[in-house]
Write a structure and sequence with these properties.
38% helix; Rossmann fold; 10 helices; alpha/beta; elongated; 3-stranded antiparallel beta sheet; 6-stranded parallel beta sheet; SIR2/SIRT2 'Small Domain'
Protein backbone atom coordinates (compact mmCIF):
# COMPACT_ATOMS: atom_id res chain seq x y z
CA UNK A 1 0.00 0.00 0.00
CA UNK A 2 1.68 3.28 -1.06
CA UNK A 3 0.57 5.23 2.02
CA UNK A 4 1.99 2.52 4.25
CA UNK A 5 5.32 2.49 2.40
CA UNK A 6 5.45 6.27 2.60
CA UNK A 7 4.71 6.18 6.33
CA UNK A 8 7.48 3.63 6.83
CA UNK A 9 9.96 5.88 5.05
CA UNK A 10 8.88 8.96 7.04
CA UNK A 11 9.11 6.94 10.26
CA UNK A 12 12.87 6.81 9.75
CA UNK A 13 12.95 10.48 10.76
CA UNK A 14 15.43 12.97 9.41
CA UNK A 15 13.22 13.57 6.37
CA UNK A 16 13.58 16.70 4.24
CA UNK A 17 10.54 17.72 2.17
CA UNK A 18 10.82 19.46 -1.21
CA UNK A 19 7.48 21.01 -2.15
CA UNK A 20 6.09 22.48 -5.35
CA UNK A 21 2.92 24.10 -6.64
CA UNK A 22 0.86 20.91 -6.20
CA UNK A 23 1.24 21.38 -2.45
CA UNK A 24 -0.99 24.46 -2.56
CA UNK A 25 -3.65 23.55 -5.12
CA UNK A 26 -6.01 22.41 -2.37
CA UNK A 27 -5.76 25.92 -0.95
CA UNK A 28 -7.13 27.25 -4.24
CA UNK A 29 -3.86 28.33 -5.88
CA UNK A 30 -3.57 26.91 -9.42
CA UNK A 31 -0.36 25.16 -10.42
CA UNK A 32 1.59 25.19 -13.69
CA UNK A 33 1.64 21.59 -14.89
CA UNK A 34 -0.71 19.54 -12.71
CA UNK A 35 -4.42 18.86 -13.25
CA UNK A 36 -5.23 22.54 -12.66
CA UNK A 37 -2.12 23.68 -14.50
CA UNK A 38 -1.83 27.04 -16.14
CA UNK A 39 0.43 25.48 -18.75
CA UNK A 40 -2.75 23.97 -20.16
CA UNK A 41 -4.18 27.50 -20.34
CA UNK A 42 -0.90 28.68 -21.93
CA UNK A 43 -0.14 31.12 -19.13
CA UNK A 44 3.27 32.73 -19.69
CA UNK A 45 4.91 33.84 -16.44
CA UNK A 46 6.84 37.09 -16.19
CA UNK A 47 10.57 36.75 -16.75
CA UNK A 48 13.18 38.75 -14.85
CA UNK A 49 14.57 40.16 -18.09
CA UNK A 50 11.16 41.39 -19.23
CA UNK A 51 10.35 42.89 -15.83
CA UNK A 52 13.62 44.83 -15.59
CA UNK A 53 13.96 45.93 -19.23
CA UNK A 54 10.40 46.70 -20.31
CA UNK A 55 8.54 49.44 -18.36
CA UNK A 56 5.24 48.52 -20.04
CA UNK A 57 5.61 44.88 -19.02
CA UNK A 58 6.46 45.95 -15.46
CA UNK A 59 3.40 48.21 -15.36
CA UNK A 60 1.20 45.35 -16.63
CA UNK A 61 2.64 42.96 -14.07
CA UNK A 62 2.05 45.29 -11.12
CA UNK A 63 -1.56 45.91 -12.18
CA UNK A 64 -2.16 42.16 -12.41
CA UNK A 65 -0.27 41.42 -9.20
CA UNK A 66 -2.12 44.10 -7.24
CA UNK A 67 -5.44 42.70 -8.42
CA UNK A 68 -4.39 39.18 -7.42
CA UNK A 69 -2.90 40.07 -4.06
CA UNK A 70 -6.11 39.88 -1.96
CA UNK A 71 -6.56 36.21 -2.84
CA UNK A 72 -2.92 35.38 -2.11
CA UNK A 73 -3.00 37.37 1.12
CA UNK A 74 -6.12 35.65 2.41
CA UNK A 75 -5.54 32.06 1.20
CA UNK A 76 -5.31 29.52 4.02
CA UNK A 77 -3.00 26.51 4.51
CA UNK A 78 -4.65 23.21 3.59
CA UNK A 79 -4.63 19.87 5.39
CA UNK A 80 -1.42 18.86 3.63
CA UNK A 81 0.44 21.90 4.94
CA UNK A 82 -0.85 21.23 8.45
CA UNK A 83 0.00 17.51 8.28
CA UNK A 84 3.55 18.31 7.19
CA UNK A 85 3.91 20.79 10.05
CA UNK A 86 2.61 18.16 12.48
CA UNK A 87 5.16 15.66 11.18
CA UNK A 88 7.89 18.23 11.81
CA UNK A 89 6.58 18.89 15.32
CA UNK A 90 6.63 15.13 15.94
CA UNK A 91 10.28 14.93 14.92
CA UNK A 92 9.93 13.16 11.57
CA UNK A 93 10.49 16.13 9.23
CA UNK A 94 13.73 18.09 9.64
CA UNK A 95 13.16 20.84 7.08
CA UNK A 96 10.98 21.98 4.19
CA UNK A 97 12.48 23.35 0.98
CA UNK A 98 9.68 24.97 -0.97
CA UNK A 99 9.51 26.28 -4.51
CA UNK A 100 6.26 28.05 -3.60
CA UNK A 101 6.05 31.75 -2.79
CA UNK A 102 2.76 31.70 -0.87
CA UNK A 103 4.19 31.38 2.66
CA UNK A 104 1.66 28.70 3.58
CA UNK A 105 4.15 26.31 5.16
CA UNK A 106 5.10 28.76 7.88
CA UNK A 107 1.49 29.83 8.36
CA UNK A 108 0.62 26.16 8.91
CA UNK A 109 3.27 25.88 11.63
CA UNK A 110 6.38 24.57 9.87
CA UNK A 111 9.47 26.08 11.49
CA UNK A 112 12.48 25.11 9.37
CA UNK A 113 11.54 26.40 5.91
CA UNK A 114 13.75 27.47 3.02
CA UNK A 115 11.72 29.72 0.70
CA UNK A 116 13.76 28.84 -2.36
CA UNK A 117 11.96 31.29 -4.65
CA UNK A 118 11.17 33.98 -2.07
CA UNK A 119 7.87 35.21 -0.69
CA UNK A 120 5.08 37.24 -2.29
CA UNK A 121 4.37 39.00 1.02
CA UNK A 122 7.59 41.00 0.64
CA UNK A 123 8.62 43.65 -1.91
CA UNK A 124 12.22 44.58 -2.71
CA UNK A 125 13.61 47.72 -4.32
CA UNK A 126 15.91 46.81 -7.18
CA UNK A 127 17.85 50.06 -6.70
CA UNK A 128 18.46 50.36 -2.94
CA UNK A 129 17.76 46.68 -2.02
CA UNK A 130 15.47 47.60 0.90
CA UNK A 131 12.77 44.98 1.55
CA UNK A 132 9.27 46.14 2.51
CA UNK A 133 6.21 44.29 3.82
CA UNK A 134 3.89 43.74 0.87
CA UNK A 135 0.92 45.21 2.75
CA UNK A 136 2.75 48.54 3.18
CA UNK A 137 3.31 48.79 -0.58
CA UNK A 138 -0.26 47.67 -1.27
CA UNK A 139 -1.54 50.51 0.93
CA UNK A 140 0.45 52.99 -1.19
CA UNK A 141 -0.86 51.42 -4.41
CA UNK A 142 -4.42 51.65 -3.09
CA UNK A 143 -3.94 55.32 -2.26
CA UNK A 144 -2.64 55.97 -5.78
CA UNK A 145 -5.61 54.13 -7.33
CA UNK A 146 -8.64 55.14 -5.24
CA UNK A 147 -11.16 54.57 -8.04
CA UNK A 148 -9.46 51.60 -9.75
CA UNK A 149 -11.58 48.45 -9.78
CA UNK A 150 -10.05 45.57 -11.68
CA UNK A 151 -12.11 42.83 -13.30
CA UNK A 152 -9.90 39.72 -13.05
CA UNK A 153 -10.54 37.05 -15.68
CA UNK A 154 -8.14 34.27 -14.57
CA UNK A 155 -6.17 33.67 -11.36
CA UNK A 156 -2.61 32.62 -12.19
CA UNK A 157 -0.21 30.39 -10.21
CA UNK A 158 2.27 33.14 -9.42
CA UNK A 159 -0.29 35.31 -7.62
CA UNK A 160 -1.29 37.65 -10.42
CA UNK A 161 -4.46 37.66 -12.50
CA UNK A 162 -5.30 38.14 -16.16
CA UNK A 163 -6.76 41.61 -16.80
CA UNK A 164 -8.21 43.46 -19.74
CA UNK A 165 -5.89 46.02 -21.35
CA UNK A 166 -8.19 48.84 -20.27
CA UNK A 167 -7.77 47.87 -16.62
CA UNK A 168 -3.99 47.81 -17.00
CA UNK A 169 -3.95 51.20 -18.74
CA UNK A 170 -5.90 52.83 -15.90
CA UNK A 171 -3.59 51.49 -13.19
CA UNK A 172 -1.06 53.81 -11.49
CA UNK A 173 2.22 52.29 -10.30
CA UNK A 174 4.21 53.40 -7.26
CA UNK A 175 7.97 53.48 -6.72
CA UNK A 176 10.26 52.85 -3.76
CA UNK A 177 9.35 55.09 -0.78
CA UNK A 178 13.06 55.34 0.13
CA UNK A 179 14.84 56.08 -3.16
CA UNK A 180 12.06 56.16 -5.82
CA UNK A 181 13.60 53.09 -7.44
CA UNK A 182 11.93 50.12 -9.10
CA UNK A 183 9.89 47.81 -6.86
CA UNK A 184 9.58 44.08 -7.43
CA UNK A 185 7.86 41.36 -5.41
CA UNK A 186 10.62 39.58 -3.48
CA UNK A 187 10.34 36.39 -5.52
CA UNK A 188 12.61 34.70 -8.04
CA UNK A 189 11.27 35.19 -11.56
CA UNK A 190 11.92 32.90 -14.50
CA UNK A 191 15.40 33.69 -15.77
CA UNK A 192 16.55 34.95 -12.38
CA UNK A 193 19.01 33.07 -10.16
CA UNK A 194 18.05 31.72 -6.75
CA UNK A 195 20.13 33.52 -4.08
CA UNK A 196 23.19 31.32 -3.40
CA UNK A 197 22.65 31.23 0.36
CA UNK A 198 19.28 29.51 -0.15
CA UNK A 199 20.83 26.97 -2.51
CA UNK A 200 23.63 26.27 -0.03
CA UNK A 201 21.17 25.85 2.85
CA UNK A 202 19.01 23.50 0.76
CA UNK A 203 21.94 21.32 -0.25
CA UNK A 204 23.03 21.12 3.39
CA UNK A 205 19.56 19.95 4.45
CA UNK A 206 19.43 17.32 1.70
CA UNK A 207 22.93 15.98 2.37
CA UNK A 208 22.12 15.50 6.06
CA UNK A 209 18.74 13.87 5.40
CA UNK A 210 17.83 10.22 5.92
CA UNK A 211 15.23 10.58 3.15
CA UNK A 212 13.96 13.17 0.68
CA UNK A 213 10.21 13.59 0.25
CA UNK A 214 9.08 15.37 -2.94
CA UNK A 215 5.55 16.77 -2.71
CA UNK A 216 3.59 18.33 -5.56
CA UNK A 217 6.38 19.06 -8.01
CA UNK A 218 6.87 17.69 -11.50
CA UNK A 219 10.54 18.75 -11.15
CA UNK A 220 10.64 20.18 -14.67
CA UNK A 221 12.60 23.16 -13.34
CA UNK A 222 16.27 22.70 -12.46
CA UNK A 223 15.84 24.90 -9.39
CA UNK A 224 14.21 22.02 -7.50
CA UNK A 225 15.38 18.99 -9.49
CA UNK A 226 19.04 19.52 -8.50
CA UNK A 227 18.26 18.56 -4.91
CA UNK A 228 16.74 15.25 -6.02
CA UNK A 229 19.83 14.61 -8.12
CA UNK A 230 22.03 15.30 -5.10
CA UNK A 231 20.00 12.91 -2.94
CA UNK A 232 20.31 10.19 -5.58
CA UNK A 233 24.07 10.76 -5.78
CA UNK A 234 24.29 10.26 -2.00
CA UNK A 235 22.04 7.14 -2.06
CA UNK A 236 19.46 8.95 0.07
CA UNK A 237 16.02 7.31 -0.34
CA UNK A 238 13.57 9.41 -2.34
CA UNK A 239 9.77 9.38 -2.11
CA UNK A 240 7.60 11.27 -4.59
CA UNK A 241 3.94 12.24 -4.14
CA UNK A 242 2.42 14.04 -7.11
CA UNK A 243 -0.58 13.97 -9.41
CA UNK A 244 0.94 13.05 -12.74
CA UNK A 245 4.47 12.08 -13.81
CA UNK A 246 7.63 13.73 -12.50
CA UNK A 247 11.26 13.80 -13.60
CA UNK A 248 12.22 11.83 -10.48
CA UNK A 249 9.93 8.84 -10.95
CA UNK A 250 12.84 6.61 -11.99
CA UNK A 251 14.75 7.59 -8.84
CA UNK A 252 11.93 7.16 -6.35
CA UNK A 253 11.94 4.32 -3.86
CA UNK A 254 8.30 5.19 -3.06
CA UNK A 255 5.99 6.74 -5.68
CA UNK A 256 2.42 7.83 -4.90
CA UNK A 257 0.14 9.39 -7.53
CA UNK A 258 -2.58 11.25 -5.68
CA UNK A 259 -3.72 14.33 -3.80
CA UNK A 260 -0.97 15.71 -1.59
CA UNK A 261 -3.48 16.64 1.11
CA UNK A 262 -5.15 13.22 1.17
CA UNK A 263 -1.87 11.31 1.16
CA UNK A 264 -0.22 13.38 3.89
CA UNK A 265 -3.29 13.33 6.10
CA UNK A 266 -3.44 9.54 5.71
CA UNK A 267 0.23 9.24 6.63
CA UNK A 268 -0.35 11.50 9.60
CA UNK A 269 -3.14 9.18 10.74
CA UNK A 270 -0.97 6.12 10.20
CA UNK A 271 1.68 7.56 12.51
CA UNK A 272 -0.80 8.91 15.09
Amino acid sequence: MPAGALADLIALGGVVALTGAGMSTDSGIPDYRGPSGAAVRRHTPMTFQEFTRDPAARHRYWARSHAGWPMMRDVEPNGGHRALAALEASGYIEAVITQNVDGLHMRAGSKEVVDLHGRLNRVVCLDCAVVFPRDDIEDRIGAANPEWRARPRVQNPDGDVTLDDSDVAAFVMVDCPRCHGVLKPDVVYFGESVPPERVTASYAHVEQARALLVLGSSLHVFSGRRFVTRAAERDIPIAVVNQGPTRADDLAEVRVDGSITEVLMAVDLVRA
